[in-house]
Amino acid sequence: MRRLIGAALVTAGCAALGLGGAARLGGRVRDLGELAAGLDVLRRELGWRLAPLPEALELAARCVRGPAAAFFAQCAGGAGRLEGRAFQQVWQEGLEDGALRLKEGDRAALARLGPVLGRYDSDSQLQALDRTAAGLRRLQEEAEDDRRRLGRVYAVLGVTAGLLAAITLL
User: What are phi and psi of 75, to 5 degrees?
Assistant: First the structure.
């Protein structure tokens, strides 16, 4: 009886690992979409309303969900109290400290926006926001393909590894 319970627990644990890997892929897709939506809000606020950067970032944080909202909120707080630092540092810290489920290439695309925000003229900022949002949307499409393709593979491998381990243990 104990062996059967142990085998079931091993199978469930491996399946959970596989499903967790698939969930991380889905989280990346959501985070990229939320970040792109936040950049759209930022563009609208900076371009049309001519809002100050901290205020625009706060609104972006309120308009998106999840880790992207926390990222924009952290950047808004940092932009409000720079204390001699460049906004680029605040932006980079937000990318490094946040719970964003991104790959290094995703972070690099966002990192290129930090030196432009709050530093150059409005047109340059808006162009950089447009470029970055378009890049994030392309990355989101790639991430969606990965999620569809690899998500099933991770789930199946997790269950199969669990069953194989359970058979070995029995």
Answer: -65, -35
In sequence order, which residues have a C-beta less than 8 Å from that of residue 117 and are 6 or more positions away? 53, 87, 91, 125, 128
How far is residue 27's CA from residue 153's CA, in Å, rounded to a whole number? 17
> Could you give the CA distance from residue 53 to residue 81 in angstroms, rounded to a whole number?
12
Residue pLDDT, tens place only, 20-65:
888 888 889 999 999 999 999 999 998 888 889 999 999 999 999 9
Residue-wise pLDDT for 57-90, tens only, equals 999 999 999 999 999 999 999 888 878 888 899 8
Tokens of 27: 């989280």
Q: How far apart are CA 170 and CA 156, in angstroms?
A: 21
Residue 158 three-state SS: helix
Question: Rounded distance, CA 141 to CA 33, Å?
Answer: 9
